Each structure stands twice: as structure tokens, then as C-alpha cells.
Amino acid sequence: MVVLSKPEHFPFLRNCNANDLLYEIPLIDLSKPESKTGIVKACEDFGFFKVVNHGVPMEFIRRLESQAVEFFSLPLSEKEKAGPASPLGYGHKRIGRSGDMGWVEYLLLTTDPDFISRKMSSIFGESENTDKLRIAFSEYISAVKKMACEILELMAEGLTIQPRNVFSKLLMDEESDSMVRLNHYPPCQELEMDLVGNGNGTENGNGNGNRNNKRKGNVIGFGEHTDPQIISVQRSNNTTGLQISLRDGSWISVPPDQDSFFINVGDSLQVMTNRRFQSVRHRVITNSAKSRVSMIYFGGPPLCEKIAPLPCLTDGEESLYKEFTWFEFKNFVYNSKLADNRLGNFEKFAP
Questions:
Q1: Active-site residue (options: 63, 134, 235, 292)
Q2: Which of 169, 214, 286, 310 is most buried (CB neighbours < 10 A)?
């Protein structure tokens, strides 16, 4: 596994107590006729929900996760053959172009099979390992994309929008700018930090702080942000860490479920629904001695696609956003900080 620097070089949360008792993550059973209603409500209230009976074969999930674990277990020098992430490829610690740091290593790829094959070949050459990873990605992406399109069509039905594929057609387009990301959060056992010399510790006769006065905290694996695309589909192994922000700004932890998927409303969908759906702020914290591996599919539109509120959802209401292309917004996002309000620059009326 990759060797990271000591945690104190990374963002750190003291006394991070997410409120897990008052809220439950919305659960959507895609096999139920009423799922479209539940999806709309979850997108309005949370911008986030969990799906079961999703139709993605478990062998596809297990196969890609197994391949991900093997990849992240390689020596750093081997993994770096697929990097540096700019933004695509292999990266560790540094997230994006603006100085964000995290207790994470990752592999970010487009969903184009040829691109994936080239990246895998840069590590393994023309070998059986390249074929295994390529096939695992291909199977997984195809199945998850199909599920994402089904969810987007149920959203359209729930909003009584015609045509039914108004959102999903953007993912189905041959020029769709969708991506897949594998994240690995290595174990982080140095989660206690001494509070010395800041009023919380006491000085002894030797000038040393009281080492018994400690406060537990959490290292940030991936800092708080929203996803810029239309929709994100994620899952992880059975390890905690993912948290989402509620509308009041408080945070709740998402219980892990390695057999289900979690859906994020993205910034582009927030614009298209004229803020009826709001993208969810989320983050990952490293708070255990167990590795966390996650797999995320980001459903994005073609680069030239114009993003704006749908006229059928602004009937009688003011459009809240300026029209922009996905290419413009994507470039803006990649040059901003993770925690920035990326859509603020595209609002018609500044808050």
C-alpha cells in the first residue's frame, strides 16, 4: 500500500461527532413502483439516497473491488506509471490543482474503454493483468451506467417531465464525459493528537506539556465538496468514513453497505432542476485501522452540452442560473478548491 506522510500534514478534524441518531439515509428499492416518488423526495430533502435491488451483478462489483485492492497493493513506483493525475490517472495525497490534500490514493479514468486499456498497459504492459482490469472496468461501468440511467428516468417521471430520458440521454450520448474513480484510504492509526501549549495542557517543571491531556480527532481522507456532474453512483467495502452534510450544515455518517449503492445529486442536476434538487456536500474521514476502498461512477454530459434550468421546471419562476457548457463548468471546477461553492459563479442572483 502507498506510504503517506504523517497525518499532521493533512486536514484534521477535532472531536468530529457526526449526528447519526436523528436521521436515516433514504432507502430506495428500485423494484418497487413507488420508487420514483421516493427518489424525488430524497433528492429534495438530502440530495442523497441508497438504492437496493439495483440490478448490478454482485460478481461485477466483487471483481472490480478485488482488482482495485490488487492495484493499490502494488509498489508506489508501479502505480505512478499511471500518473501523475492531471486530473486523470493515478494520484496520492494531492487532490486537484489548488493545493487540497487528503489521506487518499486514487485512480481516476474516463469510461472510454480505449483510454482505460492505455492506462492499464502503462503499468502492466500487454499482459493478463491488463486484460483482467480492463474487463473488470468494462463490466462494472456498463452495469452501473444502466442503473444510473434508470434512476435518472425515474427522477424525470417523478417530476412529470417529458421526455422520460431528458436526463439519461446525456449519459447515453457517445460523447458523454463520464468518469470512474477508485479511491483507497489507507489505515491511519495516529488519530490522537496532543494539545500542548494551547491552554489545554499544563506545563511541568521540565517545560513539557502534560502528555495525558489528549483529544481524539479524525484525519480527512477526502475533503468536503459537491460533485460537479449530473449524478454520482458510489459504493465501498464494509468500512465507515463517508459523511454527508444536511441542509442545516450538520454532518451525518453514512453506514457502509458493500452490497448497495449510494446516489449523489450533482451540481449539474441542481442547475437543470433550478435548485429543486440540491447537490450534496460530502467528505470522507479516516477514523479506523481498516482500509477503505470505494468505487464511484460520475455520470457527466458531453463537453459541449449546455447546462441550464429546464423550461418545464421554471414555468412561472425565475431561472436561477446562467447558461453554461459542461466544458466551461468543468474547467472552473478543476481550478477551484474542493470546498468552494462552485455554482456561485454561475448564479444569476448572487446570494
A1: 292
A2: 286
